[in-house]
Amino acid sequence: MIKLGIIGISDGNGHPYSFSAIVNGYDDKYMKESGWDNIYTYLSQRDKTDFGICDVKITHIWTQDINESKKIANATYITNIVDNYIKMLDEVDGVIIARDDYETHYEIAKPFLEAGKFVFIDKPLSLDYEELEYFKPFIEKNQLFSASGIKYAIELDFIKQKNEEFKFIRATCVKDWDKYGIHMLDGIFSVVDWKVKEIKRVKNNCFLFCDNDKIIEICMLGKYNKPIFKFEFFGIDYYQIDIKDYFIAFKRLLQNFIFMIKYKKQDSLKTIELMDILIKGNE
Prior knowledge:
- The protein is of the alpha/beta class.
- It folds into two domains: 161 residues, Rossmann fold (3-Layer(aba) Sandwich); 91 residues, Dihydrodipicolinate Reductase, domain 2 (2-Layer Sandwich).
- The chain is 36% helix and 22% strand.
- The strands form two sheets. The chain has a six-stranded parallel beta sheet, sandwiched between helices. A six-stranded mixed beta sheet has the order 8-9-10-7-11-12, with helices on one face.
- Strand 9 and strand 10 form a beta hairpin.
- Helix 1 packs across helix 9, helix 6 packs antiparallel against helix 10 and helix 8 packs across helix 10.
- It is globular, with a radius of gyration of 19 Å.
């Protein structure tokens, strides 16, 4: 049995609830009362057999708020609540840092990485070059995993199988570039392997000029009433992809982390390269 700890929470990010539920299953009453109506809705639409990942259990939790930790633990069958995440260091095989305030990632991840534990860091990994240099060798030796669930969205499977020569890709997403641009980058570069030569930012739009005159446009909508993750692919034909199935995207994301733990292999070796694009998009 692989024992994991979950660490978080950050504003507007319910991943500690959704990730823990996907691995452990969930209590209907407590999840309904969690305040995350969107998460409860897509969880409740799944069959009970959809939950769980073979030989894996989230056994420990820490958040900045002990009451929030208790809510997550009750909703997702986590048996151990700690008042300091260091206390789970010797009790788990790895941790999921399920918070997207990237400024905290280095400080939290460091003791686990240096103790030889496996670490999954929620997107984005970091927007600091010194921190990325620290993280890089842990990625290369398959101890650290960081990606967006959109990379594994089932809706993108159709495009990946097309094997078509695209010329222009447009992606549209909610919120801001810093935290959500990686969703679109991970999704796009799971489909194409273009080399980015130049980056230009025009307000909330980021343009990536790639080899062979190919262009990527990423539009960030800021605050919006509903989640939007839309991709448009222009080649001989036009394809529009709207990401809707978050459960499958997140479960595949977690399964790939577990695959790394079991087999010391991963498909997220482009993480540092994508963080570089994210940083340059700001500059």
